[in-house]
Each structure stands twice: as structure tokens, then as C-alpha cells.
Amino acid sequence: MIKNYFKTAFRNFWKNKTTSAINIIGLTIGITSCLLIGLYIQHELSFDDFETKGDRIVRVLMEYKFDGGTEFKKGNFTSVRVAAVFKKTFPEVEAAIKMNQYNKVVAYQEKIFSEKHFMYADSSFFDLFHYKLLLGDPKKLLDAPHTVLLTASTAKKYFGNDNPVGKALRVSNDSSLYQVSGVIEDCPSNSQFAFDFLASFSSLGLTQDYEESYWDANYTTYLLLKNENAITSLQAKLPAFMKKEMAGKGASINFYLEPFKNIHLYSEFAGFVPNNNITYIYILGAVALLILAIVCFTYINLSTSRSMERAKEIGIRKIIGAGRKQLFRQFLGESFLLCLVALILSIVMAVLLMPAFNQLSDKHLKAASFLSLPFISISLLVLVCVSILAGSYPALVLTAYQPVKVLKGAFKNTVGAQGLRKSLIVFQFTISIFLVVATLIIQKQLYYIQHIKLGYDREHVLILPVDDKIFAELPLIKQQFKSNPEVLSVTGCASTPVDIGGGYNMRSAVMPENEQINVTADPVDEEFIKTTGLQIIAGADFTEQDVKDVQMDDEKKRQFHFILNESAAKTLGWTAQEAIGKKMFLDNSRPGYVKAVVKDFHFQSLQNEIKPLVLFPLTWCRTMLVKLKGQHLAQNISFIESKWKTLIADRPFEYHFMDEDYNQLYRSEQRLGKMMNLFAAIAIALACMGLFGLSSYAARQRSKEIGVRKVLGASVFSVWNLLSRDFIKLVALSFLMATPLAYYSMHSWLQNYHYRAAISWWIFATVGIFAVVITLITVSIEALKVASANPVKSLRTE
Q1: Closest to 700 measured CA to CA, from 777, 793, 620
Q2: How far apart are CA 595 and CA 540, in angstroms?
Q3: What is the rounded CA–CA span in Å between residue 86 and residue 83?
Q4: Cys-Cys with 658: which of 138, 458, 632, 764 at CB 3.0–4.6 Å?
Q5: Which among 487, 439, 436, 432 is positioned nearest to 464, based on CA atoms?
Q6: Taking the CB of residue 288, how many other CB atoms lie within 10 A of it?
């Protein structure tokens, strides 16, 4: 019996090659898309699943406001005091850890590398997080200053196959060598940590002042709770505790607990690896399901449209004794066999496309994941679901035929079946039009992000790292770089104008001392305005003397000057012109005078409104900006590299451009945009494939009618119009249904941005015209063929 089912299925597939090819290709493309999206979603949802204590770990967020201030500022930062105090004070806390990550230059013998993932952590790190120790004594990993753990790949990079334990590394300008105490496994790709070095926190050599203050909040704190429900009781205790701690200190501080496993997808505050957004996961999941729905509906449409062809087969089968259940199994088996072939082809395609998809999604997914038990189970579940979804309705329709009517020739396609096919076409194109509109709006927002006037110039600006040794030689370095006439300017700063996040407070001289306003501030030197292209609208730029005035050894003689943005001046109650020469304070410890006001510029993501900003002369910096002319970039970079190697021989030359930092702010959006481009194109292609198959069948079914019409004088155009207009009506209806859905969903998405592109009418008009044109092209392929055929041939064909 089963053998007979297979024979019948293969004969049917071979007899209807075009339909079978469309179904197999469509299912293969659809399932391949779903497999790749599913693997990406699985990877994102599995972040930190390997952490056995993850449900009990929380990250501490700090919120603060100075007395008299109008709003709180919140972030993923704390001081080093938090971990010790919380562990000592609250019984809910089993362990606490403070951490931070830096860029460091690491050297061993002749090998020297700039390392971006050098992390410091307390020895309690392994009380919270699980990493397999490959070499070393587990009791002596981070228990002393200047000890460091290496990941397996880092150990091989520096020491080859030698045992690194006990060997010493030179780290940046630290006077003490770091002893390697062990080797641990590499951080998994689905981990919030991506360190290559893990050094003892005590190596930072922080003084007692840091331990006693809630300020200097430059570190990340994690707590291990005694049970996962303790987060509620601990959170409830924090406001009263911190109110007592901060009494009489001129500021309010509170802390919030964020579940560790929520950080990657749900937190607005970055982790040690870039966060994703659960909304984007939902969007991609919905896209996968919609693509799968399109291919299933194509299968249903093509199967039911061929019902007239298979009616006699079913009638004869029923007369010779075949039951409805038997026939149902036959047709459902055909669906399963077709889907199985498509699934096998899809897995092959997914493996071949994995490198390209990794580049598209900015991930390091592995084809071996397809062999994991969860993914195999999901794939089989998809196979069964698609087989049932795509095969059940055709099977029910085909097995319901009455053999007597069929064999008498009285059987016709029902109005209900035709209505279903039309409904499915409408649904397919509604999905496709929705995805195309959404994709265009996302692309418009990305274009807006790339072309909005930011208020600063990010083109041809190199970013170079600065440490204490480089800062001490900064005047000489600037002089040497500018000896090249194509180097326009060089400046030192703490943060680039792309993303300034330093939290300070300010007040004017007429405001009470206990009234403070939260403000973002950035220490810069006298060439920052020139290098970044900020626009001064009142006052004058910093001078070398302004910088020297704040670098005096005698703090009492230090004289500060400030440059405000328009928002800061307005917040202090001044116009740009009125602000010049006004006395103000930055953190009380920096009294000075306003020297200039610059036009507001976007110093953070476009998701945020422009807020008050203060630029002040630096006493330290960690970044150097080099503004170049647009020509001969390669030669100019080579020149800077040669000077760097001469002046800074102990640090590798590394650089990137400022526009790369800007693009990094929107990496999630860019990734979503690229993936939507691809899958929207796939959706429209699949819908057109189904439309082509259906229009081809409809044209063949009406060949005699068309022959009669042509004999009676109908033109090719009128025949083409007859075959096309019904499909155009269905696509027009799809457009009317998709338009409000796309508008409201994308309007909601754009609300994430304070500065956003408008949803233009022309997007919908363009997509509507595109849908009609592509429908006409698809339908015309077969319609024109039938319309131009010899009517005599079609009329004499039985």
C-alpha cells in the first residue's frame, strides 16, 4: 500500500512538473529562510543559558540627581563601594562582584598587541559565572594584584603550545608585570562577556577614597542573590537605605536591579557586548512565519486549482473501493513527501548560505547547530506543521468529491474553492506589500540617520587611542602630525562628538549652591571645535592658555573656561549672547566663565533628544582626533603611522574613522534593514511564483473560451485584459489591507527615535504601483502566450 502511495505521488509530481517545481522551489526558499532566521533567533534567545546561576544574578543600575536638580540620570554604572556594602548589608545578597573592561597594550617578549577586551574583576567572579578552567589552580586565580587569566585562544596567540601559567605579561604603562595564573575556555558567542584577559580587580590599585564613595561611578556591579525571588524584597529595601546613606550629601542616589538574563534583549543600557532588541527578534520571527505562510498558501492554491484534473482519478478510486481516509492519507502523504524533499534541500542551502548570512546578521553562527537535538526537533516540527497546513485543506477538498458527479462530467470547481484561492492570493500579497513598505520605511530612517545634519563633521577624522604616556607627549605628537599639510588639525578629548556620556552637574553663580542641573560634559583641548567642525554662535574658541590654566599644579589657581551648547545656555536661563562671560560652576570644584556657545549638535543617538552639554579644558584624555583632507587618505595614514612608530614605539598603531563609531550606534537598525531587504524580496518572489503557477493554470483552463473569443474577433489585448484584471483586483485589495497595517506598525517603531523620518505617501504609492506592475508581468508571461495561440488548435483539443 505504501509503495503504491509513493508511485502515485511520483507520477503526479512528474505529470505536473511546473506546479511541482514551483511548490518545491517555493518551499525550499521559504524553509531555508525560516531555518536561518530560526538559528539567529535561537542564538539570541539562548544568551547566557549556560550560566547555571543566571536566574539569581542581577546587574545594578544607578540613578542619581543633585539637590535642586529637575531630573534623574540613570545608567549601567556604579562605584566600587556598591558591591561591598550590598554584600555586607543585605541578607538577600550571597555574593557581589565589580568589573570593568579596558583597551590595553599587552606585550610578551617580542610580541605586542593592542587588546580591546581586557577585563578586571573580583576574585568572586567564579562564584557568579561559570567558565571551565583549563590550566591553573582554582584557589589562586584572581586572589592577588597583577594576576591575570587568559582565554584558550589568547594563550595560544601569545605562548603557542607552551604552558603560560606563571609567565609574566607587560600591560600598558603599568609598572608591575602581570602573572598568568590560569587559562579558561573562550567566552561563548552567546555570552554577555567577550573578554580575552581577566585580571584581578585589585590590580587597578584604587585608593580608599574610591571604596568610601558612591561617586566615581565607572564600574559595573553584579549581585548573586540567595534565590531568584529575592530581587523583589531587595529592591524594596534600596530606596530607604540609600536615602539614609545620602542624607546631607547634596544628592539623591538610588539603585535598581536588572535580571542578568534580561540584559541582552530587554535593557536600554549596554552590556559588555552590544545588546539586541527583543522587538527586532519579534519582527524577524514574524517575517519567518509570514514567509512560511506564503509558501503554504501557494501550495494550497496550486493543489486546489488542479482539482478538476484529479477529479476523475478520485472518482475511479472511490468506485473501486478507496475510502475517504485512505485518499486523505494519500494526499497528505504527497504533501509530506514534497515538504521532506524541500526540507532536505533547505538544510543544504542553509549550510551553503551560512557564511553570507553571518556577514548579514553580524553573528558567528555555525552550521553544526543544525545537527543539535533542539534544532532537529524544531525542523521536524516545521516539516510536520507545513505538511499538515499545506496538505490538509487540499486533501479534504479532493476527497470530498462525489464519484457519480465526477464521472458524469457534472463536477465543477465550487464558488467556495475559488473564493478560498482568491483569499489566499490577497493574503499573500498583503504580507508581501506589508514587508516591502516596512522595509522602505526602515531604509528611509537609516538614510535619515546617515544624512541628517549632526552639527559636527565626522568625515575623514581618524580616532587614535591615548594613554597617560601619550597624553604627556601630546603637544609634540600634534606638532609632528601637523607637519604634513594635509593634516588639518589634531585634538585630544575624553569622548568623540559621536557619543558623549560623561555625567556632571552645573549651576550658574546666581543659583543656590544646593541647586544643581544634570549635564553631560566632555574635557577637550583648544583644537576640538576646529577638528569636529562645531559651529560657534557666540564667543570665542578655547586657546592653548585656557588649557594651561586648568593644568596648574596649584588647584586654587586653576581657572576654567566653558563652552556650552544652546540647550545648556537655555537651561541656565541665558541666550547665547547673554551667556558669554557669565560665571558658572561645573561640579562645584570647577568654577569658571562661559567663553562660547556652540550650536546644538547630536552628541548621542538620534533616539535621544539633544540635552545640555558643557565642553571644558582637559587635564586628561583617552582619545585623539586627527582631521585629514579628503584626498590621499592612504598616504596620509601611512605618514601618521610612521610618525606614531617613531614617537610611540611601545604601542601598536591602530585607528578607525569617526563615521565608523557613528554607524556603530545604529548597528542593530542596519542589521535589521539588511535582513528586511532580503526577506521582503524573498516574500514578493514567492508570492509571484504562486501567482505565476495559478495564472498559468487559469489560462490553460480557459483556453477553449479564449479560442471562441478569438474566433469571434477578440484581440490579443482584450484576451490579455480578461486574464489579468481579476488578479489586478486581488492585488489592489491586498494593497488596501496592507497599507494601514504597515503605517501603524512602522509609526509605532519610529517612536523609538526622537529624531525620525516622516512616513511619506510616496512610499505607499510606489509600493502599490510596484505590486501592480510585478503582477502584470507575472500574469502576462502565460496570458500573452495563451492569447496569441492559434484558436483552431485549442478548439479541436479534447
Answers
A1: 793
A2: 6
A3: 5
A4: 458
A5: 487
A6: 22
Cell of 602: 547630536
The three-class DSSP label of residue 96 is: strand
Distance CA 329, CA 484 (A): 80
> Which cell numbers in the block locate residue 762?
510616496
The pLDDT value given to residue 610:
93
* DSSP 3-state of 418: helix
| Pair type for strands 623-628 and 583-586 | unpaired
Mean pLDDT across the stretch 589-611? 93
Torsion angle (degrees, nearest 10) of CA 298, 300, 306, 312: 160
- Does residue 624 contact residue 466 with C-beta atoms inside 8 Å? yes
How wide is the angle at C-alpha 24 spanned by C-alphas 18 and 28, nearest 5°? 145
How far apart are alpha carbons 558 and 593 in whole angstroms?
A: 12
Give yes or no for a contact between 494 and 520, defined as CB atoms under 8 angstroms apart: no
Residue spans of beta strands (DSSP E) within 388-535: 461-465, 487-493, 503-508, 517-524
Task: Determine the length of the chain.
Answer: 798
Indicate the average pLDDT of the chain.
85
The Cα–Cα gap between 282 and 744 comes to 16
pLDDT per residue as tens digits for the range 130-165? 999 999 888 788 989 999 999 999 999 999 999 999
DSSP summary character for residue 187: P
Q: How far apart are CA 289 and CA 636, in angstroms?
A: 51
DSSP 637: H
- C-alpha distance from residue 788 to each of 339, 700, 722, 725, 773 (Å): 36, 13, 13, 18, 21
Q: Give the span between the Cα atoms of 610 and 628, in whole angstroms.
A: 28
pTM here is 0.83
What is the C-alpha R_g of the chain?
A: 34
Cα–Cα nearest to 272, from 434, 129, 164: 129
Strand (E) or helix (H) holding 262: none
Angle at CA 171, nearest 5°, toward 167 and 176? 70
H or E element in which residue 382 lies: helix 373-399
Phi, psi angles (nearest 5°) of residue 104: -135, 155
Q: Give the count of beta carbons closer than 10 Å to the beta carbon of residue 329.
A: 17
Place of cell 610612521: 642
Grid cell of 293 as nine digits = 505562510
CA 480, CA 477: separation in Å to the nearest integer? 5
pLDDT digits (tens, 9 = 90+) for 558-595: 889 999 999 999 999 999 999 999 999 998 889 999 99
∠ at Cα 406 (402, 408), nearest 5°?
120
Model pLDDT for residues 623-666, shown as the tens digit of each residue: 999 999 988 899 999 999 999 999 988 888 999 999 999 988 88
Distance CA 738, CA 435 (A): 9
What's the first-to-final CA gap in the chain, in angstroms? 33
C-beta neighbour count of 9 within 10 angstroms: 18
Average pLDDT of span 237-265: 91
Grid cell locating 277? 532588541
636 CB contacts (<8 Å, ≥6 apart)?
484, 486, 487, 628, 629
Model pLDDT for residues 278-305, shown as the tens digit of each residue: 988 998 898 888 888 888 877 777 766 6
CA-to-CA dists, residue 643 to 101, 464, 531, 655, angstroms: 29, 13, 20, 14
